[in-house]
């Protein structure tokens, strides 16, 4: 059996292990949550986000399913409510600061805050072997700056609890810093993003803005950025870096006010974002987000996961 076949076999084995793990119910002492626990999922009208909302609600959490388009979001909520699940809807466009503010006011007024935030909303405009940067601005603005908006706006509303509040962002292995296939080959840029002790929001923002400037002046191709889905990969790399940075900052919070933040790759998933080209179902893809959000003794923060296992950034 060659290397490729062995990797395929390992993947299939892990897939089967996870489908077994998913059948094991949480015991009463593991269930730190109840129907009073509020989870917000962004971009949840379809795809992985819809499944995350579905699975969290199936575990007994109250889910706020959000969507930038009200009509499709309400339809999605209806489907889950008809299945007897506790799901509410609110409009939310993560790049529209007014929409984010209206949402924050509503969540505070309605629930007094939230306990779980799943940053799932995201866009991609490349398929197959394409690597166009035509929509780079939208990709970086949505996937990185939009996700950052949400984290910053909702942290003050995360409710204190002994179990700690949780933030999970859906990112991608395409955004791995040290990937041999798709990493950043500019050593100084890579080192700046790698060193979590010196990492800052400014470093991440400047890296994204530098890329966008190079897209505008046509020089981006020679700058050593990831070469597969460059804009998308960079946007996810930025969220991964921001996760590590925020974990370092949030670490300071006292017991009872802890917030744990992690990110994960759902695999290559059959959704609109891949043109339905993936080989993982949205149900399977949602699993690690739900597992991370509900971890019973949650002391994990600033880590990157795939298939319920930690992986390297
Ligand atoms: N599919 C994969 O293989 C894969 C792999 C790695 C990571 N991911 C990540 O998984 C997440 C979900 O993707 P998916 O595969 O489920 O794709 P999808 O079906 O296209 O879902 C993306 C969702 O994000 C929403 N969205 C986009 N821009 C938004 C904005 N500004 N504000 C609020 N919502 C917005 C979309 O809303 P509309 O319906 O209004 O467009 C849609 O609900 C994304 O972050 C993606 O990058 C996916």
From TrEMBL:
SUPFAM superfamilies per UniProt: NAD(P)-binding Rossmann-fold domains
Keywords on record: NADP, Oxidoreductase
Transmembrane regions listed in the UniProt entry: none
E.C. code: 1.1.1.-
GO molecular function, a single term: oxidoreductase activity, acting on the CH-OH group of donors, NAD or NADP as acceptor
A Pfam family recorded for this sequence: adh_short
Protein name: Short-chain dehydrogenase/reductase
Species this chain originates from: Nicotiana tabacum (Common tobacco)
GN (gene name): LOC107769189
